[in-house]
Amino acid sequence: MKKLESSLLNMVLVLTGVAVIMGGILAYVNYLTEGPINEQKEKALADGIKKVLVCDDLVVTKTDTVKQNDEKGKELTYVIYQTADAKGYELGVAVESTTSGFGGDLKVLVGFNPEGIILGYTLLEHAETPGLGSKADKWFQKGGKGDIIGKNPKEPLTVSKDGGQVDAITASTITSRAFLLAINNAYKAYKITPADAETGATKSEKR
Question: 83 phi and psi, to 5 degrees?
Fold first, then answer.
């Protein structure tokens, strides 16, 4: 029996040692990759801001974080990037907005000009069905079947199936609703930011 106890103890010690070593290796790999991954995310965001504001030469002048509760009481966080061109003129804002789609979270970056008109958008993250819900990346772009570019969400955008003016992605009404909700929520968040409400925050000179 003593020999058995010794064997079990040795096994536990070996397994513990292996777990510690593997944990250390994983932590080291994570340390090495964390920097490059963050740099890639920052570059993707910077490129996204330029894309949705249709301007390659811009600077982010201010970043705001806004929290709002949705209709179910869930707190949502929006990040608003205020921008200006090389001469300091206000271009508008890019807003990060997340909602729940068919397969999971749907994160959108949408650009608005100072009047609240949609300049462009891009999907930052999604877990929608390939070939269906994932079409949101193109479907609502300028010239697409559900084109929202140039629209102002002052009156919330909804799919035609719900009496709205936007054609839903074929066989992906849930994703389409989630996408438009993200756009509408982004607009609401933008409109309540201090700079937009003119509470004394610095604003860039408008054209």
Answer: -130, 160
Rounded distance between C-alpha atoms, residue 154 and residue 132, angstroms: 28
Tokens 């944990």 sit at which residue?
23
Query: Hey, how many other C-beta atoms are within 10 angstroms of the C-beta on 42?
Result: 10
Residue at token pair 């609401």: 188
For the chain, the straight-line distance linking the first and the last C-alpha, in angstroms and rounded, comes to: 87
- Computed from CA positions of residues 98, 127, 124, 43, in that sequence, does the dihedral angle turn out positive or negative? positive
Report DSSP state, residue 159: B
* Beta strands in the chain, from DSSP E residues, in sequence order: 58-69, 75-85, 90-100, 105-112, 118-125
The b-or-e profile of 147-156 (16+ CB within 10 A means b, else e) is: ebbebebeee
Residue 165 has phi, psi (to 5 degrees) of -115, 10
Count of C-beta atoms within a 10 Å radius of residue 61: 17
Radius of gyration from C-alpha coordinates of the chain = 23
- What lies within 8 Å, CB to CB, of 15 at 6+ separation is none
pTM: predicted TM-score of the whole model, two decimal places: 0.72
Task: Report the 10 Å Cβ neighbour count for 77.
Answer: 12
Q: Consecutive sets of 10 residues in the chain, 207 residues long: mean pLDDT of each?
A: 61 81 78 65 82 92 87 84 90 91 78 96 70 77 95 95 93 90 94 53 38
Judge whether 183 and 121 are in contact, CB under 8 Å: yes
